[in-house]
C-alpha cells in the first residue's frame, strides 16, 4: 500500500488486518507521528518516496505483492506547487506501474478523483476527463497511465474515482473535521456561502469498494465512480454536523469568499459500480456524520 497514512489508507489497513492479510507499506521517510506508528502495528513499513524509481522497484521486487493499493496522492491545497502534484501522482504512479510489470498476476487498485471530470452532477464514467485543477489534471494523467498499462502489458488494474470521502482519520484541515473541531472549541465557523455541491461518501463504504476492487473479477482497466450518488450543499452538511452536536456555535455563511476556481457541482452516477463491482454505499450521510463526530470526540487529544 502507498499512501497508508491518509484517512483511506488507515481505515483500509484496519480492514485488511482483520482479514489476516500480510501488509507492506511505502511511507515517505519524513512521515512520523501517530499515523505512521499505526501502520507499523499493522505491517512492515518501508521508508521511501513513491517518486524514487529505484526504491519503488526494489520494494516491489522484495514484496512481490498479490494486490497493490496505490493511494499516494497530494491534497487540494493552494500551497502545494504544481510540480509536486505531478511528481507524486503521475511520476509516482508510473514508478509503481513499471515495478509491477514484473508481476503481471498482481492487481493494482488506483484511487482517482472526481476532479478528473472537472465537476458536474450525476457524472458517469463515460464523461470526458476535463479537469479544472492541477490536482485533477495529475489524477487524470495517472488514471490514463493505469489503463494504458492494463491494455499494453496485461496488468490487472482498477481505477476507483473517489468523490468526497469522510470519516475517521480525515485530515484536520478539511471541511468536516474543521467543523467538528470548531464546535468542540466553541468557535463560530467562518465559511463561504456553502452553495458548493459535494457527493459525500463515508470511508467504510470506500473501504468496501477497495476490497471489492481487490478481489472481484472485473475487466482490466475498469474505472468506477465511488460516491453516494447524491450531491449535498456543503452549507447543509455543516448545519447537520452542528445540529448533531447541539448547535454549540454558528456557521458564518459568506464570511469567506468563494474561490474563483471553485468547482460548484460534484456528484456521481454509481450504477456501474453496482452492476460490475457489486458495490453500493451502506452508510447514510447522517449516520456517517454521527460516527465521525463520535470518533473525533474520542480522539480529540490526537488532533
Q: What portion of residues belong to β-strands?
A: 15-25%
Widest sheet: strand order?
3-4-6-11
**CATH superfamily descriptor of the domain at 7-167 and 201-229 and 268-282:** NAD(P)-binding Rossmann-like Domain
Q: Any idea of the CATH class of the domain at 7-167 and 201-229 and 268-282?
A: Alpha Beta
Topology:
Blueprint: H1 7-18, E1 24-27, H2 34-42, E2 44-47, H3 53-63, E3 67-70, H4 82-100, E4 107-113, E5 120-123, H5 134-153, E6 156-162, E7 164-166, H6 175-185, E8 189-191, E9 197-198, E10 200-202, H7 203-215, E11 222-226, E12 232-233, H8 234-244, E13 251-253, E14 266-268, H9 271-277, H10 285-298
Parallel strand pairs: 1-2, 3-4, 4-6, 5-14, 6-11, 7-10, 8-13
Antiparallel strand pairs: 9-12
Helix pairs in contact: 1-2, 1-7, 3-4, 4-5, 6-8, 6-10
Describe the structure.
By secondary structure, the chain is of the alpha/beta class. The chain has a domain at about 5-165 and about 200-230 and about 270-280: NAD(P)-binding Rossmann-like Domain (Rossmann fold), CATH 3.40.50.720. It is about 40% helix and about 20% strand. The chain contains 10 helices and 14 strands. It has helices spanning about 5-20, 35-40, 55-65, 80-100, 135-155, 175-185, 205-215, 235-245, 270-275, 285-300, and strands spanning about 25, 45, 65-70, 105-115, 120-125, 155-160, 165, 190, 195-200, 200, 220-225, 230-235, 250-255, 265-270. The strands form 6 sheets. A 4-stranded parallel sheet has the order 3-4-6-11, sandwiched between helices. It has a two-stranded parallel sheet with strand order 1-2. Helix 2 links the parallel strand 1 and strand 2. Helix 3 (about 55-65) runs parallel beside helix 4 (about 80-100). The radius of gyration is 19 Å and the shape is globular. The two termini are about 25 Å apart. The relative contact order is 0.14. The model has no long low-confidence stretch (mean pLDDT about 95).
